[in-house]
Write a structure and sequence with these properties.
The chain has six helices and no strands. By secondary structure, the chain is mainly α. The radius of gyration is 17 Å and the shape is globular.
Length: about 180
């Protein structure tokens, strides 16, 4: 039975196997980002705080990019699809952060949700094709290829890091706090 916390996040299983535990923590982090960006209009999603240029809208689009990059391109060697394949990344290596200001809240949430859903499907596919030890299609410059286990841990770390940013931005916006 999945336990849902007061913010609507699924608690990771307390007694799950390795895959269920890793996926459980990733889903908790995903749900935290959804909570921190919920109910905000375009102006709020485009607000910066202090000296940072980071916005919650940019963060949603960045995490959509990261989800698709790791699970589609790296893990399976598949095209990332739109909007990613049409971007001139040489002209703007941070395109996802910069372009988010032109997107509506609905577009930002939709691109993120599509990327998350795609990553879930690809995670299940990889679990059925080698499990957590399944190596990524795409190798790093030194020739090593990360496992699905590594990718899941990295995604947990990526979300946890950026959810800290989201906490600060959201509190500055409207005082919304919470773990």
């Amino acid at each position: 039975m999945t336990v849902i916390d007061p913010q609507g996040r699924p608690e990771p299983p307390a007694d799950g196997d390795e895959a269920a535990t890793l996926i459980g923590f990733l889903e908790f982090q995903r749900a935290t980002l959804a909570w921190k960006t919920a109910g905000l209009d375009a102006a709020a999603l485009d607000t910066t705080v202090a000296a940072s240029t980071m916005t919650l809208g940019g963060l949603l689009k960045h995490m959509a990019y990261v989800e698709t990059s790791w699970f589609s391109r790296s893990l399976f060697g598949r095209p990332m699809g739109e909007p990613w394949d049409a971007v001139d990344w040489d002209a703007d290596r941070d395109w996802e952060w910069h372009s988010a200001t032109a997107d509506t809240p609905e577009e930002l949430h939709a691109v993120w949700r599509r990327s998350v859903e795609g990553a879930r499907v690809l995670t299940e596919e990889a679990l059925g094709d080698g499990g957590l030890g399944r190596l990524a299609h795409r190798a790093w410059p030194d020739g090593r290829r990360p496992s699905l286990r590594w990718i899941l841990c990295h995604m947990i770390e990526e979300y946890a890091r950026h959810n800290g940013h989201a906490d600060l931005i959201r509190e500055a916006l409207d005082g919304e706090t919470g773990e």
